[in-house]
Amino acid sequence: MKKSDAWKRKIAYQIYPRSFADANGDGIGDLKGITSKLDYLAELGIDYVWICPVYASPMDDGGYDISDYYSINPMFGTMEDMDELLAEAGKRGIKIIMDLVLNHCSDEHEWFKKALADPNCEEAEYFYFRNSENGAPNNWRSMFGGSAWEHVGNGRYYMHLFSKKQPDLNWENPKLREKLYEMIRWWLDKGLGGFRIDAITHIKKEPTLSSLEPDGDDGLVGCFGPTRNYPGIGDFLTEMREQTFDRYDCITVAEAAGVPYDQLGEYIGENGYFDTLFDFTYSELYSYGHAWHTCKKAWEWPISLLRDKMFASQIETAKIGFGAVYFENHDYPRASEKFLPKEYQSPLSQKMLGTLFFFLRGIPFIYQGEELGMTNTVFESIDDVDDISTKNHYRLALADGLSPEAAIKAVNRYSRDNGRVPFPWSSGKNGGFGEGTPWMKIHPDYRSVNAEDEARNENSVLSYYKKMVALRKSDEFVETLSVGDIEPILTEYDDIIAYIRSGNGKKVCVICSFSPYPLNVKTELIGKKLLLSNYENASLPENGTIKLSEFEAIVFEC
Ligand code: GLC
Ligand code: CA
């Protein structure tokens, strides 16, 4: 089927369902809650909503451990609620994108239970079981820490690249693949707008599963080399596309870490496996060695590093396809925590950050709460945390001799639970999240940072996001700002990230200043029309200079 590329002109929004809106008062966000907030999303101008997993799951990893792909986790509601959400979203012109987790399932999935019970059954072949006399079959390290193998007795082990409750699926098995494709088609038949495809670059493993040179004191080795974008993966991905996505009018967004730019075409080129993907090169600037507490300051790198990585991604992607652009998701602390020192985190600088990613070439994904300018929350102790990877990092810090007080500091900075706190709808009880006590503590700032108050305030981050959405979708600029070209400018300035979008006979300039001081910037650009700024009195370039206030963002036609 020749697909339309209308999606490139659209705006997407990501929902973490457990923390978005609770309709039945049990303290947990649910599908009915999402349905009840569709008008909010429509008003913001959202076209696609990606919902993190709502399938049946023991919730070991926030639902990324699926025990039944065909049913809804009762915590989130029922299949009828899902159908209702699809129908109500459709009425508002919103398409729903579900999360598709195919690298692993839950150890509570029926396949795995059968496989455990009978090593000779068909389902045992759906996983990576190996026998080994002397400990784990190899020295690969799981992404969440520790060995990637779990012992189930009698020298029998299974592989899990993520938590031990997430056994990896064996894609080499054709029967398994057919079952997965059948399931994908079943969901698409319901009229989904598409899928965000989880951890997909991991489905092919180095076939001999050999141990490698350890890269840490634990004697283990990170599993990226032998399991990320491993040669041969393309056969699976092509087959999946042909058997499923190609037959529907849907979009596919791959979580595709580790794809080098020279292979981008295979993923999202003309005949790529997917429509678009998330590139992680510019959203993960810091590397923290073996644990968070060994990384000192998240923003202790020059702005030019962010700029170089971001533009490399933009330019390489533009050569062959169309990316998905974002700063936040459910796996990260809040963007202002990553890109700005604490003392400079404010609605002003958050609008600047928003401007920076929003007008890049790609379909923008706003993560829930980002449009309110939410910052990291406060975790007083590890009991405030739910996330499995956070708990692992906390344990690693204690093991390194840190006190609980010291260990919780790194948690506060890096935990992905920062982005998973209940959405603050109002300054009322439980921040308007629902009647019952929320499953996770609400952000302490909810009285000032919440959707209701921000909707009323013309100068809020929310009102600014509405203006950004309206501009990107405006008849006048939609072509330029979506599929138009991108060119970095002003790269000689350390604290500025700026670019020009051009196409459809128009040029739009976007300048973002990370400087806490005003700057006078030399430029030959001629400003034709001011389109947007986080300052009321922003001025266009004059006589070869543009005056920028601290943390200014300005968008103008040139
Ligand atoms: C992806 C998800 C993340 C999850 C992991 C394992 O990276 O975004 O939340 O923990 O896959 O499924
Ligand atoms: Ca609920």
Give the quaternary arrangement of the chains.
Answer: single chain
**Helix content range:** 25-40%
Q: Quote the CATH topology of the largest domain.
A: TIM Barrel
Assign the CATH superfamily of the largest domain: Glycosidases
Labels describing this entry:
five-stranded antiparallel sheet, Immunoglobulin-like, alpha/beta, binds alpha-D-glucopyranose, 558 residues, Oligo-1,6-glucosidase, domain 2, 16 helices, eight-stranded parallel sheet, 17% strand, single chain, binds calcium ion, 22 strands, TIM Barrel
Protein architecture, described:
By secondary structure, this protein is of the alpha/beta class. It has 3 domains: 6-104 and 174-381 and 416-469, TIM Barrel (Alpha-Beta Barrel); 110-159, Oligo-1,6-glucosidase, Domain 2 (Oligo-1,6-glucosidase, domain 2, Alpha-Beta Complex); 485-557, Golgi alpha-mannosidase II (Immunoglobulin-like, Sandwich), CATH 2.60.40.1180. The protein contains 16 helices and 22 strands. It has helices spanning 31-36, 38-44, 79-91, 110-117, 174-189, 224-227, 233-243, 264-268, 303-320, 335-339, 347-358, 388-399, 404-414, 451-456, 461-473, 478-482; strands spanning 12-15, 48-51, 55-56, 68-72, 95-101, 129-131, 140-141, 149-151, 156-159, 194-198, 221-222, 251-255, 276-278, 324-325, 363-367, 485-489, 496-503, 506-513, 519-522, 529-533, 545-548, 553-557. The protein has an 8-stranded parallel sheet, with helices on one face. Strands 16-17-18-22-20 form a 5-stranded antiparallel sheet. It has a 3-stranded antiparallel sheet with strand order 6-9-8, with no helix packed on it. Strand 16 and strand 17 form a beta hairpin. Helix 11 (347-358) runs parallel beside helix 15 (461-473) and helix 12 runs antiparallel to helix 13 (404-414). The longest helix has 18 residues, at 303-320. The two termini are 39 Å apart. 49% of the residues are buried. The model has no long low-confidence stretch (mean pLDDT 95). The structure holds alpha-D-glucopyranose and calcium ion. Calcium ion (CA) binds next to loops.
